Amino acid sequence: MNKELEFLWAQILSELETVTNLASYEVWLKTLEPLELFENTLILATPTQMSKDILNTKYLSHIEEALSKINPRLSNIKIITIEESKEYVNSQIIPKSEAAALEFEIEPTPMFNEKYTFDGFVVGKSNQFVHAAARAVCENPGKVYNPLFIYGGVGLGKTHIMHAIGNYLLENRRNLKLIYITSERFVNELIDSIRDGSGRGKDSATRLFRKKYRNVDVLMIDDIQFIENKQGTQEEFFHTFNDLYQAGKQIIVSSDRPPKQLNNMQERLVSRFSWGLIADIQPPEMETRLAILKKKAETEKYSVEDKVFSFIAQKIETNVREMEGLLSRVTFFAELKGERPVSLETAKEALKDYIENQKETVTAERVLDAVCEYYGISKEEICGKKKNKEIVVPRQICIYLITEILSLPLSAIGQLFGGRDHTTVMHARDKILKEVKEDSNTASVVKDIKDRLLKR
Ligand code: ADP
Ligand code: MG
Fold first, then answer.
1. Whose CA is nearest to atom 14 of ligand 1?
2. Taking 50 as the threshold, does the pLDDT of residue 1 lie above it?
3. Looking at residue 137, what is its pLDDT?
4. What separation in Å is there between the alpha carbon of 321 and the centre of ligand 1?
5. Is the pLDDT assigned to residue 20 strictly greater than 80?
6. Cα 116 to averaged position of ligand 1 atoms, centre (Å)
7. pLDDT at residue 30, rounded to an integer
8. CATH topology (fold) of 364-454
């Protein structure tokens, strides 16, 4: 390693030491090794893919900040695995394609992630509907449910299921033309095509864009909520939709909300989204969460004690991605200690920061428990069908507290309360919201329960 680089890195490390806590410093940052400087980018190597992922998601901005503080001319960090670094170290120059990617940030061409298959998708009560619909679409694209509209909260498997459809069709229906794209990319491509087409050869880029999207057999658009407020894109997508639909081509759309809750979306698009099948993914129940963790451990060849799975599944209720993140963190931590299988003690140690930092240790379950305890009623009663005042009021307060403290979709809250729909949830929430403002009695009850919850 050259002296200049060594010195730079030492300075960055001491900067980082002061801004991160000791554990993350020891576990993550110290594994990094500076490789070289290229243009304004410092390239760092880390032992495994897992540490690379975690560093990229959690620490990249810290490192970049430290770097630009020490040398304002430098601003980018690129983290690669030791495996990937061999290429760099041997050649001492960056491969051409990489250099280009660094300069222009070229995204890799969209492809289906091979890990996102039906085999890798755990089916439970929360997602069996979507799963069945996706399967049916695979058997008869364009024929059964068109469009298929999938919605659900963040990290619940929408992208996974779309890729699973793609992977399946790639393998079983080789002649079909497929496109999967995030709506964000769709917007960017459209903008580029308009820009490129505005000079000579006017419209040719736009024509190419249209040709590309209107000549497919299956079009999947992920995270459609991104085109809320984007009238031009909605207009273009509307025509794409019509062309494909009329030609009997399959359209699959995902969103974080049902069509009717999308804001500033053309009414004619919203209504088209409902022409086929609308399928929601709910947060997985405990049992499904456990099964997902076990599956993940199996595919990644992690060795983990059973208790660790339950520990993690209890910590995270509403986001599978986050849950998987905790599992890889725990195994990486154990790997450093040379422990296999991962014990519960190690898991707790590895997630200590996470748990302490997590302001929302309050979960929907705990709100339920607190309200039941406060009123001396049971969970079955509060989630059940009873309509007497003794139960209805606590139920409404509970719903109100959940909407206030947690950021859960209303439909998910409805599910918690025995499958009530989102309008019922909304009604309960608004009623208590009003009472809290107007009635000091309700206000103090709500405050009491909240205090108990947040103090724990
Ligand atoms: P979304 O697109 O809804 O935000 P993703 O599809 O990206 O969520 O899923 C987040 C992570 O959780 C992915 O790694 C995915 O494989 C995993 N995941 C979600 N649901 C399941 C499931 N039912 N079985 C297995 N893995 C799942
Ligand atoms: Mg997604």
1. 321
2. yes
3. 98
4. 6
5. no
6. 8
7. 84
8. Chromosomal Replication Initiator Protein Dnaa; Chain: A; (1.10.1750)
For domain 3-102, say whether CATH 3.30.300.180 is its number.
yes
Would you state the pLDDT for residue 194?
Answer: 77
Q: Which CATH code fits 286-357?
A: 1.10.8.60
Ligand 1 atom with minimal separation from the 323 CA: 12
182 within 8 A of 288, measured Cβ to Cβ: no
Query: What are the extents of the domains in the chain?
Result: 3-102, 129-281, 286-357, 364-454
* Residues composing the chain: 456
Ligand 1 proximity of 320 Cβ (cutoff 6 Å): yes
User: How many A from CA of 280 to the centre of ligand 1?
Assistant: 14
pLDDT, tens digit, for every residue of 297-314? 999 999 999 999 999 999
pTM (2 d.p.): 0.62
CA 197/CA 135 separation, integer angstroms:
39
284, 120 contact by CB (below 8 A): no
- The superfamily in CATH containing domain 129-281 is P-loop containing nucleotide triphosphate hydrolases (3.40.50.300)
The response to whether residue 125 sits with its C-beta less than 6 Å from ligand 1 reads no
Q: How far apart are the CA of 226 and the centre of ligand 2, in A?
A: 12
Distance from C-alpha of 299 to C-alpha of 185, rounded to nearest angstrom: 30
Pocket flag, ligand 1, residue 272 (CB < 6 Å): no
Of the candidates 147, 133, 134, the residue with the CA atom closest to the CA atom of residue 275: 147
CA dist 27 and 377 (Å) reads 46
Q: Give the distance (Å) from ligand 2 centre to CA of residue 255.
A: 9
Could you please report the per-residue DSSP string of 111-173? Answer: ---TT--STTPPP-TTTHHHHHHHHHHHHSTTTSSSSEEEEE-TTSSHHHHHHHHHHHHHHH-
Instruction: Determine whether the shortest distance from the Cβ of 220 to ligand 1 is under 6 A.
Output: no
Q: Is the CB of 324 under 6 A from ligand 1?
A: yes
* Ligand 1 pocket member 158 (CB < 6 A): yes
